[in-house]
Amino acid sequence: MRKGAEMMASELNLLQKKILTDGVIKPGNVLKVDSFLNHQIDVPFISELGKEFKNIFAHKKIDKILTIEASGIGIACLTAVYFGVPVVFAKKSAGSNMDTDVYATEVKSFTHNKVNHVVVSKKYLNQGEHILIMDDFLANGCAVEGLMDLVSQAGGIVEGVGICIEKGFQGGGDALRAKGVDVRSLAIIDKMDAATGTITFR
What we know:
Order of helices and strands: HEEHEHEEEEHEHEE
Structural class: alpha/beta
Number of strands: 10
Mean pLDDT: 91
């Protein structure tokens, strides 16, 4: 392993091990996992993560999975295979082929340090639907809050939030949990250091 974690390798789960072998820490608390998760997608590996999310939320009624473009789409789709439900992704801009009748919200991106106007067609989120929100990363929680707002506007029910990698030190996940949101993250990072290349998992 190129990076250390403060636990024995045998105690790490599939995603934690992959982060340690293939992830790259950059200055500014940036973790690049674009070799397998959000640029190039390791489909068999991400499919295994999808299976894990199905196990985690198996007791919940799920009608649709909601994510945000673009990097959440891969994990959402490969999880949806196991639930047998559609994936809806919020678009960050309303293109010429987008419906004008939409639910809209604002989401601040930690990665790009800008506010995105995101929309979902009203045809694809409906009153009473049970929604699982998913994303690749959770940092300050703004993306999840925005997606929850879209579900609320539609009169849907958020059954839970599935996250691949949570930056626990940024507090977004804990703030959502404090509000009663069922947030489940496959890997929660409590600390990472670009200078030493170390990651500490919760």
